[in-house]
Amino acid sequence: MAKASRACVVLLRLLAAAATLSAAVVMATSHESTTVFGLTLDAKFQYTPSFKFFVIANAIGCGYSLLVLLVPPTSSLSRFVVVLDVIIAMLLTAAISAAGAISEVGKKGNSHSGWLPICGQIPKFCDHVMGAMICAFCGVVIYLVILLHSIHTVIGPLLP
Amino acid sequence: MAKASRACVVLLRLLAAAATLSAAVVMATSHESTTVFGLTLDAKFQYTPSFKFFVIANAIGCGYSLLVLLVPPTSSLSRFVVVLDVIIAMLLTAAISAAGAISEVGKKGNSHSGWLPICGQIPKFCDHVMGAMICAFCGVVIYLVILLHSIHTVIGPLLP
């Protein structure tokens, strides 16, 4: 039982690493150039602090997911792992949320602030960002499952 | 010992409720009108989806913090409270992050997207948003302390 549970957690962590790595790579490779009224528009993730934060957070999430596999489940460090899991889950949530807020402005604009939507001009870039956010969302969901599993095994069955 | 620990958690939850309530109220009462080149600019939190999300998330966080005080610490529901604490902490993180991403654009703009900074025109509104974000950040930190406390009491001392 303990062995199956451990294998399950390892699988989940590998999935989380894959999801966050994909999110970081898809966002980092998003790039599109277009010409509007003779002006060249260049869209890169580096131009938006929220997207930079997204890439860094997902890279940290991926690195952590792999590193934590090295911690033996019986060591005293495993207590810190639960704490770190919570913090990484919050970091990934923050990254998706910040990128989502900017994407929303990019897609719909904000007439009250005079910010025009730009996804019509750079649809490929917007699709890339959307894809990266879906990957990162999968990562957060997996982290939530890992946390539920930790709480379940530590505190006792969630369903009486 | 158990009584002191319980009193500590109740105090932390009341503080979290106060912090999230302040955040929601400060954001909800932010409003500024200004005239630029003869045009009236009206800044309200309702005009930005991220700020609406911020108010709703903090209202949920405040309501939850108060409701959860009714759950007796020995009931079987207390297992769910840890799970809900994690989810509320993630919700508040997402709210701050989304509001922060939009504030950043409001403050510095994004020349690559053609979005101009607007905080120069509506400084009072921006200060309100900043204040709300600081309150919400306090709320998240308190939730993190509550979670650390739960993990500490349930799994065992974090510091061996």
TrEMBL record, chains A, B:
Location of the protein in the cell: Cell membrane
Classification via Pfam families: CASP_dom
Casparian strip membrane protein domain sequence ranges: 5-141
This protein's GO CC annotations: plasma membrane
Main location group: membrane
InterPro entries linked: CASP/CASPL, CASP_dom, CASPL
Leader sequence residues: 1-23
Key words, A-Z: Cell membrane, Membrane, Signal, Transmembrane, Transmembrane helix
Keyword Cell membrane attributed: yes
Topology in the lipid bilayer: Multi-pass membrane protein
Membrane-spanning ranges: 52-71, 80-102, 130-151
Top-level taxon of origin: Eukaryota
Quaternary structure and partners: Homodimer and heterodimers.
Family membership: Belongs to the Casparian strip membrane proteins (CASP) family.
UniProt-recorded name of the protein: CASP-like protein
Annotated organism of origin: Cocos nucifera
Taxonomic classification: Eukaryota, Viridiplantae, Streptophyta, Embryophyta, Tracheophyta
